[in-house]
Amino acid sequence: MSAAGLRCPGCGSSNIVDDDLYCQAQLVCVDCGSVVSEGTLADDPVGGTDVSYSRTTEMTRKPCLNLIKGLERVKEICRILRVSSEIEDLALTHFRQAYEHESFINVTLQRKELLAGCCVFVSCRQRDWPITLGTISCLLNADQTLVGGVYQNMMKILNIQAPFINVTDVIEAHVQEYKISTQHVPEELAEDSKVLSKRAVALVELAGDSWIVTGRKPLPIMMAATYLAWQSLNPNKHRLRLSLDKFCQLAKVQKRKPATTRITELKEVLCKLGRELPWVREPVTQNDVVPLVGDILEHRHTLLTRALRTHERAMEADCTQTFALNSLTEEVAPSQISESRNQTANASSVVQPCPNTRGENQEGDGDENHQSEDPEPNWGKRVLFAPPCVLHAKMRRVERPVQNVTGDEEISDSEIDSYIRSPQEVRDFAQMQKMASCSDSGKS
Amino acid sequence: MIMDDLALERYFDDSIANDSSYLVEEDLCLQSSQQQPHASSSKAQSSTHLSGGAETSGKLGDDLDLSFLPDDLSNQSSITAAAADRNAALNVLEDSGICLENNLPDSGAVELQKSTVDLGPESRASPFCPMTPMTPMTPMTPVTEKSGIIPQLQNIVSTVNLGCPLDLKFIALQARNAEYNPKRFAAVIMRIREPRTTALIFSSGKMVCTGAKSEEQSRLAARKYARVVQKLGFPARFLDFKIQNMVASCDVCFPIRLEGLVLTHQQFSSYEPELFPGLIYRMVKPRIVLLIFVSGKVVLTGAKERAEIYEAFENIYPILKVFKKQ
Questions:
Q1: Cβ pair B120, B104 in contact under 8 A
Q2: How far apart are CA B314 and CA A348, in angstroms?
Q3: pLDDT tens figures, B90-117
Q4: β-pair type (B269-271, B279-283)
Q5: Looking at residue A330, what is its pLDDT?
Q6: Tens digits of residue pLDDT in A363-401
Q7: Which residues in chain B are closer than 8 Å to A138, comparing Cβ atoms?
Q8: Helix locations, B140-243, DSSP H
Q9: B23 CB-near residues (< 8 Å, 6+ apart)
Q10: What percent of chain B stands above pLDDT 90?
Q11: The model's pTM
Q12: Cα B115 off chain centre by
């Protein structure tokens, strides 16, 4: 500030000097000593410094605070899961790499936290540590679809591949979660974790072989397997009566809704195998299959072979029957039958001394009904085990096939006119729109 | 041609594999006589499929003349059990027949099959039959059966430029089949009944047409939309019509082990059952994305041409067959 041209408000003299001896620069009148004006304490130009913080060297010396927080979160998650240090290091590397990418640098803090969880998830998978996305979502307390989205994004950015983890690998870790040992629950409901785990693994393997696992979320299947394993290890009336809901409450795990359907599907498969047990006389239904589960699992390979052979014989019998009935349509291709044959271990059929007439009738009936009604028989009904989505296929609306169109046909005027409003319609519509907007503005 | 060891092995593997299944199927054939021919004449079947449809697979090319094939192949089912062995041998011939030259049409193999064995009334004198039967030839490429399944187109997305700016409010007012909500989306959504499609018309004059089941239908639909816009008084033209995306689906009719597929084709597949029940397979050539489900249903998308879809399916079919059994 120039001292020239200023007048002291106190005495009116123009003898003003710039006094910056002290920390603050002041304009002082020499005659009367009053301070005319003083400089600002902070001598910065208006609007902050010339150089913004992000461009100063401070940035390179100190990394972003959120990055540090994120890395801490990664370490935290790793410690909760008790993974090895190798996985932890790998997760930290992935996080640093992904964090810098434009898709993750400017997102919400929630998303950054999800990114931390996904890095741990990927690292676990790459080092063969069995874990599911559901577990990570639980840890992060976030919706699985959200986590899934961040996960896919991250995989694309990092351009890495994570090997697939089988349900059978994860089930053991899953069973550990269940608080079902003698110290938590009464004697008749308690079960040793190792024994439970072993049986659950066998059940999950069986489910995998009979198409229950492929394409489905793993957690409900594991829950169903654990439940059935627990019930069958000691099928007393207490256990058999306890529903899945109560079981989950007892074991202090969160129930998964699809688990009930999985239990039904698993029981169905067990029934199919249970029928082949030579010492079972009564029909095996969903209600009484549980006590037999132990035996079924022990001999499941033999039972599987026998069931397939029975099924094959049923198919054969069915074939002669329908040939005699002469009701087959073109679509019932023998190639589908040959498929079930290909599934069997050997083609030579041996007469089985077991009560499987029910089984044959059931499958025979189903097929017969199917052939007479549907123009396109469901191939799933012709094989012993099929994915449930095939067995319970949705009825699709059949679209009528359109005749061949060249694309250059003549377009009739009348057709086009049918898509255009008449003048009266236009007037009506415009009026209605006006009324609607008036009432809207009236309300608001 | 001299067969090297590897080719010889492959040749026997194929014939043995086909052998057992045909023997088995022959029994069934006896019992279900009115049946269409199955695997042993699947090639004939696939030829029928191909000749019946308007398009042929890109591989076979346009010079394929299948007119001499009988329309109704069910006569072949009168093959007796005694012919089972002959059929097995025939299949071997079929394989080798196809492998002789890459552009030998399927029909040539079928004719070869018919002419080498006397099947009674069904046999025809073949205009082809260049090679002597029972002479195995080295396969140039691994023998793969044509799948016999044709993916059906489900959706075509195309774009066209009407070449003039449009007043969307005016169009929404004057057209019966239009909806326009500028706060939600900056385009008019118009629909027509035949072909059943939807169009997004933008104020710049550009238009997107979706929902058609074939390229020609998409073009016809786009022209109809252009006509409607024309009738409303705009100088609409029909410039740069282009198919942007084609979606097709089909069913291979056997369950697929997705876990196995993701293990062996890790670079192309992404299978996350916790996120999506299907396996996402990104094929490199042709550049198509396939969604493969455990039920055997396959969805193919990302194609600009029909041939890409057929090629992609023929590429994936042998891979899927590997994961058919448990």
A1: no
A2: 34
A3: 444 444 443 334 444 444 444 444 444 4
A4: antiparallel
A5: 44
A6: 333 333 333 334 455 777 778 888 888 888 777 777 766
A7: none
A8: 168-174, 215-231
A9: B84, B88
A10: 48
A11: 0.66
A12: 29
Q: In sequence order, what are the residues at sequence separation of 6 or more whose Cβ sits closer than 8 angstroms to the Cβ of residue B170?
A: B232
d(CA B132, CA A158): 57
ipTM passes above 0.95: no
| Pairwise CA distance, residues A121 & A147, whole Å | 11
- The letter for the amino acid at A152 is Q
Instruction: Note whether A262 and A220 are within 8 A (CB).
Output: yes
Report the C-alpha gap between A247 and A196 in whole angstroms.
14
Instruction: Kindly write down the DSSP assignment for every residue of A197-209, as one continuous string.
Output: HHHHHHHHHHHHH
Instruction: State the nearest Cα–Cα gap between B182 and chain A, in angstroms.
Output: 15
Counts of helices then strands in chain B (DSSP H, E): 8, 10
As to burial, measured by CB atoms within 10 angstroms (0-12 exposed, 13-18 middle, 19+ buried), residue A312 is: buried
Q: CB–CB of A387 and B295 under 8 A? A: yes
DSSP A167: H
> Looking at residues A127-136, what average pLDDT do you find?
88
Per-residue pLDDT tens over the stretch B126-144? 455 455 555 555 545 455 5
In one-letter notation, the amino acid at residue A440 is D
Lowest mean pLDDT among A18-27, A65-74, A128-137, B313-322: A18-27
Q: Give the pLDDT band of residue A349 (cuts 50, 70, 90).
A: very low
Q: Which of residues 70-89 of B touch A (CB under 8 A)?
A: none
Say whether B192 and A419 touch across the interface (CB within 8 A): yes
Alpha-carbon span A439 to A444, nearest angstrom: 9
A30 phi, psi to nearest 5 deg: -70, -40
CA B302 to chain CA centroid, Å, is 15
Give me the count of residues in chain A.
444
Residues β-bridged to residue A29: A16
Q: Parallel, antiparallel, or unpaired: how do β-strands A35-38 and B152-161 relate?
A: unpaired
